């Protein structure tokens, strides 16, 4: 007997995470592996988070707070918003799923860039909605093109800033000009998973803008700068009515006790956030300088990763790097000759540069 799935589900691709260090060690017989594929924080999490998790060990048999009240209070205090402006999920991708479930139905439309985080389109299609993909311009969101794509069927517009995988941002002036022209009934979901890393002064404060634009919701995560990727914790910030609608489709107990305790400790340790931001800026600057020395073109990078154009298919460079124990990301539909590299520790960044320089030299010898 074969149980039939929805027609659309049968056609959907399964999300492919980056190779793990364990996979590479096993398949290539390499002991020292540097993983720069998933934009994880190379410095881990705050010491205060580890202490908070230790205190939760004795409560494994207890359900978490379904409403995440203490976590809401801690985040609301840090961001200077009301608790009813926040919704939490098992990673920001869970919030993306909830937005699609709450607002999209069959024959609706959402709009996204043609090279961005794939879960926007994936979750919209699960609801039967069509996603209009607007090509990036030089790796940046074409906001004019996205405005032109809005129709009476449009329910959600997705903007990722810094954009994954290109690393580019939408500036404050650009976002305001865009929001001024978006119909008030269209929700704009601004994915800011990497916002804490941005040092550019033109980057918008989305929380301030939400006051003026009730149809704007910002998405953030504890997976990146806070170093809590394994605990799956993300959140959305928006107008109370928008958040209420999203909350109505939230699964009960969708964040664990460990995630909530870790989130509280992480958001309160802003000294650690600042430390990671500074270290990331140093590492990013180093990678940019080295790529310039090696005559490799890079996208303007504002997160904790950088997209690098290489003189071969990205998948070929990926294989070459993996053989040397360096894991990056490649296989981008509209950037076939590019790789995305996470900004690692000083030692990891050095290892990557040494490996790619060796590969480039080997290519010249072959020629």
UniProtKB/TrEMBL annotation:
Keywords, comma-separated and alphabetical: Amino-acid biosynthesis, Aminotransferase, Histidine biosynthesis, Pyridoxal phosphate, Transferase
Catalyzed reactions: L-histidinol phosphate + 2-oxoglutarate = 3-(imidazol-4-yl)-2-oxopropyl phosphate + L-glutamate
Pathway per the UniProt entry: Amino-acid biosynthesis; L-histidine biosynthesis; L-histidine from 5-phospho-alpha-D-ribose 1-diphosphate: step 7/9
Domain Aminotransferase class I/classII large residue range list: 32-356
Enzyme Commission designation: 2.6.1.9
GO terms of biological process kind: L-histidine biosynthetic process
Needed cofactors: pyridoxal 5'-phosphate
Modification N6-(pyridoxal phosphate)lysine occurs at: 224
Entry-linked Pfam families: Aminotran_1_2
PANTHER family: HISTIDINOL-PHOSPHATE AMINOTRANSFERASE, HISTIDINOL-PHOSPHATE AMINOTRANSFERASE 2
Known partners and oligomeric status: Homodimer.
Protein name stated in the entry: Histidinol-phosphate aminotransferase
Organism (species): Paenibacillus agilis
